[in-house]
Design brief:
about 130 residues; alpha+beta; OB fold (Dihydrolipoamide Acetyltransferase, E2P); six-stranded antiparallel sheet; three-stranded antiparallel sheet; 5 helices; about 35% strand
């Protein structure tokens, strides 16, 4: 079973969202990085890009497949994890820590987070799919 920390929210597209102050940190879940295997490339929309929840805002490529990244929250991308450009394998090694992908300043935090799954809900979703 994939690791699913309790301190985040999850999308059915396998992104996680962690609220830190007035920002939402976003990455892909353990389930997603396991499915992709060895990640070789990560591309995220530029800082300043305004996204809506569910918008495609990046791409992850691996030896096996490529997968779009969707923003779990609406708002403005205010930071991108530049380390992933030279070391995309960090996502495989630490998807919930150093492998974060981008930070969003949400336009309406409560509404955005309410639409996501909690850890228990995400585990149930994984078991049912």
């Amino acid at each position: 079973m994939s690791e699913v920390p309790d301190d985040r929210h999850y999308s059915k597209e396998h992104e996680w969202a962690q609220v830190k102050g007035d920002l939402v940190i976003v990455g892909i879940t353990d389930h997603a990085q396991n499915s992709l295997h060895e990640i070789t490339f990560v591309e995220i929309s530029e800082v300043g890009t305004v996204v809506k929840a569910g918008d495609e805002c990046g791409l992850v490529e691996s030896m096996k497949a490529s997968s779009d990244i969707f923003s779990p929250a609406s708002g403005e991308i205010v930071e991108v994890n530049g380390e992933l450009e030279d070391a995309p394998e960090i996502v495989n090694e630490d998807c919930y820590g150093k492998g974060w992908m981008f930070k969003v300043k949400p336009s309406n935090l409560d509404v955005e987070i309410a639409s996501l799954l909690d850890a228990k809900g995400y585990k149930a979703f994984l078991e049912s799919s």
